[in-house]
Specification:
By secondary structure, this protein is α+β, with helices and mostly antiparallel strands. It has 9 helices and 17 strands. It has helices at 3-13, 28-54, 126-137, 158-167, 180-188, 192-212, 225-238, 311-329, 337-351, and strands at 58-64, 86-92, 101-105, 115-116, 142-144, 176-178, 248-252, 279-284, 287-288, 291-292, 295-301, 354-357, 360-361, 394-406, 411-423, 428-430, 439-441.
Length: 451
């Protein structure tokens, strides 16, 4: 059968709704080329403005092998999986310059950008060479990855810090400052090239989610939630992707003895056999091209005689979507995560919506750097990370739950949703739409996320 006929069969089979084929995934070699290309673009086009914004003209990043600073990994070429021996990177923006000079005080070049600036044969002491380079450039501020509010920006260990100070001339000590805002800006800001691909990445994740929450994987009365979880782990490996956390699948059901709606994130749900009438919730993320997704969606197992998701569950889903709208309407450049949370909760209270907000940045890490917008166990201010402002060209996991009382169940349902979204400085756009309909199982006519 030729490719056209195969695509036609798939298209007809799924009612003309699902993609005829799964989204393309690059080979390892192709991924490496993209990662390295993006890194060069980020250093050349993004880093200069971030250094100006943070008022740091020299950024020094130091790591030892197997004790890596989270930031240094984002500067390494695709073929490097860790620092080598002790790797020192120096990034310097001279006064009036529009570019950043990059140096590797290491035994090797570090990728294309960081050329080796140390010759052990002429200067055996690596720390002395680093000190010489700093003195030579004579920066106004020396940014180090020491941070109170963000673990991603706090990667310089005490040994490296103390050793650097012992080598630097004393008159340079006062120039040392925290590079927290520079590190967070580097990690959180997305380039046009990255954003051109992020929708594709989210599409891959959504397709895997939909496949797992379907009759292709689930046999009601037989399949357990753990069966589905491990199907996802195997599927990720089969597609040569990675995940940054173990997926979870849990159940809410009408049975009064079932208390799934009360479970906190601190308690792992027990594995249960999936039955007709169950509401399934998945939490799932993949890593691809050094970017991450974090998605939570819902599916319902049709009972005998049901051909679609019951209307009362559809109505509950609308409450969850409304809460998403309330949250994203509060995204304003310069507003802090705590301010966004407070304004969102005011509107929730006005509209009588019960629920919780716990959204977070998304990008080079799953739980990434940037403004924290509530936490599942704290609906008040988050000191530090919650005080960080919202910047344009950043990505967030719009994560929350709406609590809706179902008279049909005589209990509450938690509508738990999480979708990746991009903030361009003016508006929030979901990376690949958002779930507005609960996925039915089975679904002979397919399913599609809508914007």
């Amino acid at each position: 059968m030729n490719k056209f006929l195969i695509a036609l069969v798939l298209f007809v089979r799924f009612g003309g709704i699902l993609f005829a084929q799964s989204p393309h995934i690059l080979s390892q070699r192709e991924q490496a080329a993209v990662i390295d290309q993006w890194l060069e673009e980020r250093i050349q086009t993004l880093l200069p403005s971030l250094m100006d914004r943070s008022e740091i003209d020299m950024w020094v990043i130091i790591s030892r092998e197997y004790n890596e600073d989270p930031v240094i990994k984002t500067f390494l070429p695709a073929t490097w999986h860790a620092a080598r021996r002790r790797t020192m990177l120096v990034l310097y923006k001279a006064p009036g310059s529009s570019t950043v000079e990059t140096f590797a005080v290491a035994r090797y070049d570090v990728g294309k950008s960081f050329k080796k600036a140390w010759d052990p044969d002429t200067q055996p002491d690596q720390w002395m060479r680093l000190s010489e380079l700093i003195v030579e450039k004579n920066p106004k501020k020396i940014g180090l990855n020491i941070a109170k509010d963000f673990g991603h920006a706090d990667g310089l260990n005490v040994t490296e810090y103390n050793t650097l100070k012992s080598y630097l001339p004393e008159n340079f000590h006062s120039k040392i400052t925290s590079a927290q805002n520079l590190a967070v800006g580097w990690l959180e800001t997305r380039t046009p090239s990255e954003m051109a691909t992020y929708r594709h990445l989210q599409t891959i994740a959504n397709d895997i989610i939909a496949d797992g929450l379907s009759e292709e994987v689930i046999t009601p009365g037989v399949t357990t939630t753990d069966d589905v979880v491990w199907w996802y782990r195997e599927k990720i490996k089969e597609l040569k992707l990675d995940t940054w956390f173990h997926p979870s699948v849990d159940i809410q059901r009408a049975d009064p003895a079932s208390q799934g709606q009360l479970r906190s994130f601190a308690v792992k749900a027990d594995s249960e056999v999936i039955m007709p009438g169950d509401m399934l919730h998945i939490d799932f993320g993949i890593s691809y091209l050094r970017l991450n997704t974090d998605t939570q969606q819902l599916a319902y197992v049709l009972k005998l005689g049901e051909n679609e998701v019951p209307q009362y569950l559809k109505d509950a889903m609308k409450v969850g979507n409304r809460l998403q709208d309330i949250l994203t309407s509060q995204f304003v450049t310069g507003r802090t995560g705590n301010q966004i949370l407070r304004e969102t909760r005011k509107t929730m209270n006005t509209e009588g919506i019960k629920g919780s907000i716990y959204s977070h940045p998304l990008g080079m890490h799953g739980h990434a750097s940037g403004p924290t917008i509530g936490m599942w166990d704290n609906q008040g201010d988050t000191p530090g990370a919650g005080d960080y402002p919202l910047y344009p060209n950043t990505v967030y996991a719009i994560e929350l739950n709406a609590v809706v009382f179902l008279k049909e169940w005589n209990k509450e349902l938690r509508v738990q949703l999480e979708e990746g979204a991009f903030f361009d400085g003016e508006k929030v756009t979901y990376l690949n739409g958002r779930q507005v309909e609960i996925m039915p199982i089975p679904r002979k006519n397919g399913f599609l996320n809508n914007p």
